[in-house]
Specification:
Helices cover 50% and strands 18% of the residues. With 208 residues, the chain is α+β, with helices and mostly antiparallel strands. Strands 1, 2, 3, 4, 5 and 6 form a six-stranded antiparallel sheet that branches. The longest helix has 30 residues. It is elongated. The C terminus is likely disordered.
């Protein structure tokens, strides 16, 4: 057992920067965490990227040291810069995914029609800042501002602020005494999204 642990420890230390990048990435995005095997593969990929970044940093610092010597590159220096590079990689990757940076660049050039968001459901709600109407499974309709929404339609909850019911005649019944209502995603049949420039007018005047 001790022999197995001693053999596994160097591998875990090698993958640690990759696991750190992956942990930061999934902590800052709405993407669900993959299986343990897939996370290990991702950590390996992240680790190779971090090693490459750290190598570039080392080369630059060693070159700068020929002009101004500030210290010696040691194993501790390698570890510190690996952690910093892994953190920057995780934060940068999360920012690019949340802003759809890489996929939007590819879409403009016709390489893909996909987005970086975890689902079409999440993509539509994230890219349309507008009032919505939730058509519930029991036939009721709830309108409001989606402060929070689930990643996919099978799990999670909506948090609807400025909530109001829409009755069978299309009249809006405000719930002014509430800050919001939490609705399970599984209770929603579909979502109607209004253009943000005329959302309030549409909700209050359309007999829908």
């Amino acid at each position: 057992m001790d022999n197995l642990f001693s053999q596994a420890t160097p591998l875990l230390l090698f993958l640690l920067p990759g696991f750190l990048s992956a942990w930061i990435f999934y902590g800052l995005t709405a993407h669900p965490k993959p299986s343990q095997f897939e996370r290990t593969v991702e950590a390996l990929v992240f680790t190779f990227v971090v090693q490459g970044i750290t190598g570039v940093i080392k080369t630059g610092l060693v070159a700068a040291g020929s002009l101004i010597a500030v210290g010696v590159w040691t194993d501790e220096s390698q570890t510190v810069w690996s952690v910093l590079a892994a953190s920057a990689l995780g934060v940068g990757g999360a920012a690019a995914v949340n802003k759809d940076t890489f996929h939007s660049w590819l879409r403009r050039r016709g390489f893909t029609s996909r987005t970086s968001h975890p689902s079409e459901w999440f993509c539509v709600l994230d890219s349309n800042s507008a009032y919505v109407i939730l058509q519930l499974q029991d036939g009721r309709r709830l309108t409001g501002w989606p402060k929070e929404w689930p990643v996919n339609p099978s799990t999670g909850q909506f948090y609807m602020q400025q909530p109001a019911w829409i009755d069978e005649h299309g009249c809006v019944v405000d719930l002014a005494n509430l800050d919001g209502i939490i609705i399970h995603a599984t209770d929603v049949r579909w979502v109607e999204v209004f253009p943000k420039e005329n959302a309030e007018h549409d909700i209050s005047t359309q007999g829908i």
